[in-house]
Amino acid sequence: RSFVIAITNGILISPEQGYSNWFSPTNFEWSSGGNASGYRLFMDGGLLYEGSGTNFSIATNFQAGTHTWHVAATNGTEFISYGTNSFFVSISTPNLISPSNGLNSLIPIDTFTWNSSSNAAGYILNLNGTDIYSGAADNFTSSSNAGIGTNSWFVIATNTTVQIFSSTNTFVVTLPAPLL
Known about the structure:
The structure is a single chain. This protein is mostly beta strands. It is 0% helix and 49% strand. The chain has no helices and 17 strands. It is rod-shaped. The chain starts with 11 loop residues before the first strand and ends in a 7-residue tail after the last strand.
């Protein structure tokens, strides 16, 4: 007679259910359960790892949004699923660098810079209620200057599923006094 030794269920350890951060998790870990000789790690329905280890490290940033993962253990004959965990990756808020908030300038402003945001695929720069730039860079030089008077600007970090708004900076451009 032959028989199959049943696999006992293991536990998904990390990233834990409900994990939420600006950064993608870099390590997936699960317990071995019993009688398993191999594992398959799936994320968002696709196979991410297959082997005998109970952890897998990855250096890829995931898209912002909700992701699911689960492990299927095998003894060479059958598979058993360990259940499913989900985690959320956000985009970090962009911080505006220049022009700084409250700046008073006698020189027209045409260059805007901000910090890069974790997991952002691109940015939208809004000046005085108008989107003047959309792209992947964390700076933009406009072909026209901000107008004389009070100006406000903000940046939106974007990804396929999430948009995060920066604070709004205000700056003033004034005309220099005439030379006498």
